[in-house]
Amino acid sequence: MTQISQAQARTIIDTAFAKGDALGLKPLSVVVLDAGGHVLAFSRADGAAPGRFAIAHGKAYGAVMLGMAGTAQMKRAEDQAYFMAAVNGVFGGQVVPVPGGVLARHDGAVVGAVGVTGDTSDNDAICAVAGLEAAGLSAEI
Amino acid sequence: MTQISQAQARTIIDTAFAKGDALGLKPLSVVVLDAGGHVLAFSRADGAAPGRFAIAHGKAYGAVMLGMAGTAQMKRAEDQAYFMAAVNGVFGGQVVPVPGGVLARHDGAVVGAVGVTGDTSDNDAICAVAGLEAAGLSAEI
Amino acid sequence: MTQISQAQARTIIDTAFAKGDALGLKPLSVVVLDAGGHVLAFSRADGAAPGRFAIAHGKAYGAVMLGMAGTAQMKRAEDQAYFMAAVNGVFGGQVVPVPGGVLARHDGAVVGAVGVTGDTSDNDAICAVAGLEAAGLSAEI
Amino acid sequence: MTQISQAQARTIIDTAFAKGDALGLKPLSVVVLDAGGHVLAFSRADGAAPGRFAIAHGKAYGAVMLGMAGTAQMKRAEDQAYFMAAVNGVFGGQVVPVPGGVLARHDGAVVGAVGVTGDTSDNDAICAVAGLEAAGLSAEI
User: ipTM surpassing 0.90, yes or no?
Assistant: First the structure.
């Protein structure tokens, strides 16, 4: 399985930040996780709130651990709230089931995930996708 | 009390996997717990997401600890969400109250539980039942 | 990076059990983790104590997360006990730093780990190595 | 109070990595925390073990929260192990009291901390200092 390199992780973060600037979004925070849900890289833009690492991480972590991107997680949470609450319990409360948690795929396999937070969930996801595509990876929002 | 043997646990897992293949389901993960809720055996099929152990475990653990299979737990969660949330609190957030958590009975007594995850909850339960029956145990979904 | 397949995980477990039988060891429990520290497969032999999953897991989990096999972890714990205690803290108390946590390598890269518990730590490690070699992987004890 | 900017955080990480390369060290992981102990930036070099975020974070987190760099924490742990263990308890086990956790000061005030892990603790600290100095901050090891 392909692994996301540190160079790719930097490209993802820098491109997501640039996309946010281009769209005039609020300061973003971006995390890149590997295929096991472990942190490869993170950056929090100047002016972002101190707790943004945990939120970015929670969006990406749930995506990797469940193999389900943020949009699908949000739908499940809306359809069956107690199920996603329970799933969160077994993952130590580390899952934030909203857009902005974007799966990274290569040749179809999940190789990690990106979590973006700071603006609306939909805008966060747009920036994550821009980052992944710049790094040559497929994005599933 | 009869205990589920390691040989039976393997039969349960292998049969559940075979049932999933026969039905064309997504890659499954299957856990077998003993009468104390402790892990006897687990297998995660190739291609399943990394977090599947925790979900399979949560389905089976709740079944054993409450003496209540996944279908009954789901009904309770839908009827009285705060109660199941509170129950989950006292069990450290380790309970996933949906089908696919199937009680194993022998001569009427609970001897353990099987947790299956990967496809829809109902399909997960079908595979758990197939596994338990192949091992000579009664299944309560 | 190569991933350990479910077929390899079964080979590891079955071979470790067979090695334990051949050596006349106590009932073993064997877990196989992937490169992210997530459970691929586990089996607990008949007669093993109920808490053996947690111990097997802790041996293998620390090995993967630290990139350091059980023997090296034990040396560090003996040389600088407060450091390994602190490391354990950041991993939620999930690290058991003794032999029997064996790194699985392929072409030099860590692709997972095996945790064996039940007999002496050294005998546990011997069985883990037998399992990994039967699966075509290099073992670092 | 001066805050570490994202540009400075990048300088710290890139310089620490370059120092590690120049010294021929193992792959490093570097975290930069703000004055509240919250993550500003992190990078894990290719080939580093998956659990390195937690260790880097633990080194830097303890430094900020206690206002005491890694070397002083290690001395305290060696002199009075139960005290540092108790301190760790009140911080949720998130403190790793060894060199490589380096305080960042500006005009005497603590403005954050850097945590480096991957090689020996002393080498880790050397790389953290190089990073902080390149970013125009004072380092207390």
Answer: yes
